[in-house]
């Protein structure tokens, strides 16, 4: 078998199975030689950087092309998807409160330096940041991966180009098709990228440090699993009146796995767009809802903010009444919607939630440090939940007649 045959066989192989093999090999290499595993982690870094590099361009051309070529009177069903995003995020925060009361957790504070961290001081600051991102310079938005700005400019240009000639619209469509092919090539390299990510993560972190926070991790992961396998399917069933689990399992398998290891909703946008295409969804809809979900559909972020805040409250012996807990759900949901689609984006919003209970910024920043310690599991699970849910809710609204 020559090299060309090997490449073709790989390209036609089952991507999920190849990713699983990459995970197993990554763990094996980290156990055999940490030095080798750390050196091979460059494959993971290259994979994530490639996804992050192509994602803003892909979102821009897809959204602009979809809107420019959209036929008058064709419904995109964006509004019901956004509503599901908001409902799902708020209900996730409420569920996190309930589980935190049922299984209270406590923190061992670390004396960790946090001078380089710059968390927002209020909800107003979060909302102001979102508004400023909307009117960001389009070139800067593409360069920095500001998906709110990219989406806003793509929509504006799409509407501006809506009345242009068919030839001009076809140029947008051809560029979109070309960028999509590049994305498909990068996604086929996922087994190598995830192999590098797993090898590097296990070699650098291991499990010894994480065992100190085992109960906290169990509560966080358990809450997210309940959302993924109970709450989200329930929402989809109410919306579609169909068995939701086939869709949920497909999204977790083909979107959640890659998101777990890339730990970036933004980097997983190309994966989700490709999955939506495979599911036969309308491009006019998913080309907008998926990048929008990467910045606003943040159930996992709401869980992280809520659970870690209540763990801090329990550690300090502060009593929490129903009204304050409900307010925490609102604050966590709003803050989560302003979370950036990058690794660890939700952690810096914990001081904002802690301020509801009069917790000093000095203590809150130590909670942030704890969040980064457990982030290898927490942030991976959070991103997997957030990103796979984008496709789940988009597909649920697509199935509505």
Characterise this structure.
With 401 residues, this protein is an all-alpha fold. It is built from 19 helices and no strands.
Judged by helices, strands and strand pairing, the structural class is mainly alpha
Number of helices: 19
Number of strands: 0
Separation of the first and last Cα atoms = 50 Å
Order of helices and strands: HHHHHHHHHHHHHHHHHHH
Question: Unreliable stretches, pLDDT < 50, 5 or more residues?
Answer: 110-117
Strand count, sense and barrel status of the largest sheet are: none
What is the mean pLDDT? Answer: 80
**In percent terms, what proportion of residues is strand?**
under 5%
Question: Radius of gyration, Cα only, in angstroms?
Answer: 21 Å
Helix percent reads: over 70%
Tell me, briefly, the overall form. globular
Would you kindly provide a brief summary of this structure?
The chain has helices at residues 3-11, 15-32, 34-40, 42-68, 78-102, 123-134, 138-144, 147-160, 166-188, 190-204, 214-240, 245-262, 269-278, 283-296, 299-316, 322-337, 350-354, 361-373, 375-398. The protein is mainly alpha-helical and 401 residues long.
């Amino acid at each position: 078998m020559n090299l060309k045959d090997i490449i073709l066989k790989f390209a036609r192989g089952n991507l999920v199975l190849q990713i699983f093999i990459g995970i197993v090999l990554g763990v094996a290499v980290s156990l055999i030689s940490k030095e080798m595993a750390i050196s091979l982690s460059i494959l993971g870094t290259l994979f994530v950087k490639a996804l992050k590099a192509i994602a803003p361009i892909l979102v821009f051309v897809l959204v602009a092309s979809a809107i420019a070529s959209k036929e008058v009177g064709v419904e995109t069903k964006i509004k019901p998807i956004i509503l599901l995003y908001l409902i799902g995020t708020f209900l996730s925060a409420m569920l996190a409160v309930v589980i935190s009361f049922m299984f209270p957790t406590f923190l061992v504070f670390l004396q960790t330096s946090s001078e380089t961290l710059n968390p927002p001081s209020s909800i107003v600051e979060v909302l102001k940041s979102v508004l400023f991102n909307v009117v960001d310079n389009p070139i800067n938005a593409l360069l920095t991966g500001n998906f709110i700005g990219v989406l806003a400019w793509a929509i504006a240009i799409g509407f501006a180009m809506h009345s242009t000639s068919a030839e001009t619209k076809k140029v947008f469509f051809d560029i979109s098709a070309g960028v999509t092919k590049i994305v498909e090539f990068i996604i086929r390299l996922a087994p190598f990228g995830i192999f590098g990510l797993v090898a590097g993560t296990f070699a650098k972190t291991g499990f010894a440090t994480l065992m100190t926070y085992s109960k906290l991790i169990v509560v966080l992961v358990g809450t997210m699993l309940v959302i993924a396998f109970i709450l989200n399917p329930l929402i989809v069933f109410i919306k579609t009146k169909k068995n939701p689990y086939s869709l949920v399992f497909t999204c977790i398998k083909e979107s959640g796995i890659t998101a777990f290891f890339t730990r970036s909703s933004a980097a997983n946008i190309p994966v989700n767009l490709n999955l939506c295409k495979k599911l036969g969804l309308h491009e006019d809809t998913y080309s907008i809802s998926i990048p929008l979900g990467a910045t606003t559909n943040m159930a996992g972020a709401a869980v992280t903010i809520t659970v870690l805040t209540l763990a801090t409250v329990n550690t300090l012996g502060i009593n929490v009444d129903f009204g304050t807990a409900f307010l925490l759900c609102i604050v966590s949901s709003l803050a989560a919607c302003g979370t950036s689609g990058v690794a660890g984006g939700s952690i810096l919003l914990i001081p904002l939630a802690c301020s509801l209970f009069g917790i000093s910024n000095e203590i809150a920043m130590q909670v942030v440090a704890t969040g980064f310690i457990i982030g290898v599991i927490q942030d991976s699970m959070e991103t997997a939940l957030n990103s796979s849910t984008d496709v789940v809710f988009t597909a649920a609204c697509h199935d509505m007649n």
